[in-house]
Design a protein that fits this description.
With 276 residues, the protein is an alpha/beta fold. It has a single domain, classed as 3-Layer(aba) Sandwich (Aminopeptidase), CATH 3.40.630.20. It is built from six helices and ten strands, in the order αββββαββββαβαβαα. The strands form three sheets. The chain has a six-stranded mixed beta sheet, sandwiched between helices. It has a two-stranded antiparallel sheet with strand order 3-4. A two-stranded antiparallel sheet has the order 7-8. α2 packs parallel to α4. It is globular.
Length: 276
């Protein structure tokens, strides 16, 4: 069972005093699945059981943005087949859908970047689009959802709104030994949970794409990380990608005061997730 802790009354008063200052958050949501996409973002988790060394996401690098990471764990498992996992965003359709609704409601992300394991290589594959598939490959429980988004046709695409070329160029320039590229193929990320969560990011952003939306979401997209990419390299490439995403978002939305940033960071920091 999942539990939450509610922010204190002092924080509620602070937030109540600030609504005119910002109608959207400065929170960026990132998600992972199989290793190393969970391990590379561990320091951005504000769950102390997953990140006992402490959350580094609040006002990350003085950017004015709070980074929140969510991912499953795979206790007792070894790759390359990691299985379903436990915790947030298990490799399971129904768990992913439930966690997506809960977590986006808590974070109200202004931008989203989802990650999953890709090919057996050292690639950094930025997906240009994902598909509203009419059928998906079965998960570990044998479940196969149908079309999840009824607002567009079955098998229609939604496009990434990440700064894709900037991400690719910066990852290449860092000389990390990665093959960074944009995937523009018709496959669009596969037929399993990778594309499923990627599509959820694009779908969410499309529903909150207007500046007048209190939950305005500027950008979303998915990245596949090659199996052979070690955790340190993956972490560096992820941070490079985040910096490019922040630059894009920063060029799109107005700059808030530091009190607003701090209050919004504390509001989500006070919500912890755990399973009993």
């Amino acid at each position: 069972m999942k539990h939450t802790r509610v922010a204190g009354s002092f924080l509620a008063l602070v937030l109540f005093a600030l609504p005119a200052a910002a109608e959207f958050t400065r929170n960026i949501m990132i998600t992972g699945y199989w290793p190393n996409t969970n391990n590379m973002m561990r320091r951005f988790s504000n769950n102390p059981s997953q990140n006992p060394t402490g959350w580094i996401g609040q006002n990350w690098e003085g950017s004015g943005y709070n980074i929140y990471a969510f991912f499953p764990e795979f206790p007792g498992q070894n790759g390359p087949e990691w299985g379903r996992g436990v915790g947030d965003f298990e490799v399971d359709y129904r768990d992913t859908m439930a966690d997506w609704a809960r977590i986006t409601g808590e974070v109200d992300p202004v931008a989203i970047m989802t990650f999953s394991r890709g090919n057996n290589d050292r690639s950094w594959e930025v997906e240009s689009r994902n598909r509203n598939r009419s059928s998906w490959s079965p998960d570990y429980g044998g479940y196969q959802p149908g079309r999840v988004d009824q607002s567009i046709a079955a098998n229609a695409y939604r496009n990434s709104t990440l700064p894709m070329q900037d991400i690719v160029d910066s990852v290449r320039a860092a000389n990390l030994g990665l093959n960074a590229y944009i995937d523009r193929s018709a496959a669009a990320g596969g037929t399993f949970l990778s594309e499923f969560i990627g599509y959820h990011g694009l779908w969410y952003q499309s529903m909150h794409s207007q500046p007048s939306d209190a939950n305005w979401c500027v950008a979303a997209g998915h990245v596949h990380v090659g199996i052979q990419v070690d955790v340190d390299t993956a972490t560096r490439a992820m941070e490079i990608s985040l910096r490019e995403l922040i630059a894009q978002v920063d060029a799109t939305i107005p700059t808030p005061g530091t009190a607003v940033i701090g209050a919004m960071g504390l509001s989500v920091l006070s919500v912890r997730r755990r399973r009993a």
